[in-house]
Amino acid sequence: MSEPAASAAGSLLDVNxxxxxxxxxxxxxxxxxxxxxxxxxxxxxxSAGLIRRRLLVNVEISRQDPAYPWILAWLSEPRPQTSFxxxxxxxxxxxxxxxxxxxxxxxxxxxxxxxxPGYGRHIVKxxxxxxxxxREKQSTAKTNTGEPHETLELTTLYAHRHxxxxxxxxxxxxALRANEGKTVVYSVRNFDxxxxxxxxRKRPLASVVLDKGVKEDIVNDARDFLARxxxxxxxxxxxxxxxxxxxxxxxxKSSFIQAxxxxxxxxxxxxxxSEIGVTDDKLAFLLTKLPERSIVLLEDADSAFVxxxxxxxDGYSGGTVTFSGLLNALDGLSAGxxxxxxxxxxxIELLDPALIRPGRVDMMVRIGEATRYQAAQxxxxxxxxxxxxxxxxxxFLARLDELGLFRDVVEGxxxxxxxxxxxxxxxxxxxxxxxxxxxxxxGLIPQKxxxxx
Length: 453
Ligand SMILES: Nc1ncnc2c1ncn2[C@@H]1O[C@H](COP(=O)(O)OP(=O)(O)OP(=O)(O)O)[C@@H](O)[C@H]1O
Ligand SMILES: [Mg+2]
Known about the structure:
Layout: H1 15-20, H2 32-55, E1 56-62, H3 67-75, H4 84-89, E2 95-103, E3 109-117, E4 120-126, E5 129-142, E6 148-157, H5 163-178, E7 182-183, E8 185-189, E9 192-195, E10 200-201, H6 214-226, H7 229-235, E11 239-246, H8 253-264, E12 267-272, H9 280-288, E13 294-299, H10 302-314, H11 323-331, E14 338-345, E15 363-366, H12 372-383, H13 391-403, H14 420-429, H15 434-439
Parallel strand pairs: 8-12, 11-14, 11-15, 12-13, 13-14
Antiparallel strand pairs: 1-6, 2-3, 4-5, 5-6, 7-10, 8-9
Adenosine-5'-triphosphate (ATP) binds at residues 208-210, 249-255, 346, 420-421, 424.
């Protein structure tokens, strides 16, 4: 988002900047704008209702519409006015704030404040046209989330009606630019997709180390799919593709999906299927209104299958997604025509073969415990700049061999294995300290959690 009023340092409002900004200029001394407006409006209503209807055009944007946040952000753009009248008219007296917090590398949390026009009436001047803005909460109508319905109404002269096209184009452009280089992760709040925190910097694909060729296979498949839209359309096949990533915790499934989304320039729309309250209806509804250019990520897909069994037993599904709910969401009538879905699970054995059907899940990949190849790659990512000849890498790998930790090297009745997350943890603990990493390699042996005797 453009953040005209978010200070560079982060935690303080740049009040000066705010006041100098005519869009925001508090208008603390000009309390009469509202009254003047109301007066003008009453006059207009009384004397020339007809003319008003003839001469003005307005556009109503509902809170539910994707354009709603774009237009709000667009309204917050600084638009310096030169003429006296424009300066006075376009002051905004009512603001609302959206605060986002994030942790900084060296210190407490950082907050950024994003100011937007508050509820009520405002005027903006854009190019040659004045646009009256009315942001309203409708207390009577409730959305399905229980929140009051909200609308934004833009009004301008009939003669200037074409300005709306420019407004929407510019607002959309702004929204796109604000997220450039970032991956937006949407999560579910009630019945809506909302961005989860501040958009994150794209995670480079190279930072996720999967076994040899695995990453390339999935990335190529997804790219191929994206390039074939017309092919699907011509054949009347729904343009959908599903992937299932399964394997033990901490193997990089979620990280990979996030990095892939960044690579393809997509957002991630994430639903945790094990969460209480995500019901079949809700899932179906959410999939019909996915944020544009987003990959659907259904985490913990196995919970839908567990629920089936639970339901069989007592006839109640416990307020979560059922097996049939998941299948319908993936390719039933309610499923959108276009989408890429990723499912993840730690328990492939709980899944049902019905899931593995073209259009539901087209590609299944196991993302497993760490292999020798992955450990070597990760070593290079962490210590490549200090371990020029790779001698220490070989020592580290030899040590892991000795401990019998690689899934591709040791096979046995009860092999011990380790996760890439654990290796990352070890390296993070021993930043710049190769000896430390080698000495502590034993810590990679998974701990068994056992009750004390
Ligand atoms: N293969 C990997 N390459 C790079 N980083 C990894 C890899 N595997 C795990 N990590 C790191 O470990 C952490 C956990 O990884 P992630 O959440 O992607 O695992 P996951 O497979 O989704 O686990 P779960 O099944 O529990 O959801 C992240 O910080 C991630 O960066
Ligand atoms: Mg995960």
